[in-house]
Amino acid sequence: MRQAGSLERLRAFVRDIEQMVGLGGLRLAERAADRMRGLVAQDDWLPDEMAVPDKKFYQQHLLYADPQDRFSLVSFVWGPGHATPIHNHTVWGVIGMLRGGEYGQRFSIDGGAPVPLGPDELLSPGAVEIVSPTHGDIHRVRNAHDDRVSVSIHLYGGNIGRISRSVFDPATGAPKDFVSGYSRRLEGLFPQLQAACGQKEQNG
């Protein structure tokens, strides 16, 4: 549950990632992963509305999107039994487990059916993993629990809700393009920035 003033923890994380992305350089995902560990080590900052599940489908709630689309931060909310199809990202990503747990299965696809790369791996609260075209970009994820909601925090090297990606047929590996969008968006994280963006849109 969020405590008074705990949004500052989220704001500080976004500011740190903004600085990292601005500096660029090698091992950006690894440095972002180190920072993610600090964020998910505490579960007192995520607004309640950004942890709302759906009965049928997992939810991707936008916490912050960089105005230049250099990165985005989302909360994934997994109801009991929820799972993704096999999919890719096309950009680097850092996944931090906040509540519950999730199983991730990585795959390789080379002109045929997806081939599992090892067993399902459990991500528990406080744990972090990296996905990217260089670390392994194709996986399937599911809630580790059949009786409770799980929540993970995902940081991506682009505006993930706008990026054209692919899901893959589990029998043939055939890709199908999709753009995920967002289930809902967090308002008021940086009020001054949102006001400036709104004024810019009004002025055209």
What can be said about this structure in brief?
With about 200 residues, the chain is an alpha+beta fold. It is built from 3 helices and 12 strands. The protein has one domain: Jelly Rolls (Sandwich), CATH 2.60.120.10.
Report what the structure shows.
The structure is a single chain. The chain is α+β, with helices and mostly antiparallel strands. It has a single domain, classed as Jelly Rolls, CATH 2.60.120.10. The protein is 21% helix and 29% strand. The protein is built from three helices and twelve strands. The protein has a six-stranded mixed β-sheet with strand order 7-3-9-2-1-12, covered by helices on one side. Strand 10 and strand 11 form a beta hairpin. It is globular. The N and C termini lie far apart (39 Å). 30% of the residues are buried.
Mass-distribution shape: globular
- Tell me about the biggest sheet? 6 strands, mixed
Looking at the structure, the CATH topology is Jelly Rolls
Domain unit count: 1
Estimated structural class:
alpha+beta
Count of helix runs? 3
Uncertain segments: 195-204
Keywords, please?
single chain, 204 residues, alpha+beta, Jelly Rolls, 6-stranded mixed β-sheet, 4-stranded antiparallel β-sheet, 3 helices, 12 strands, globular
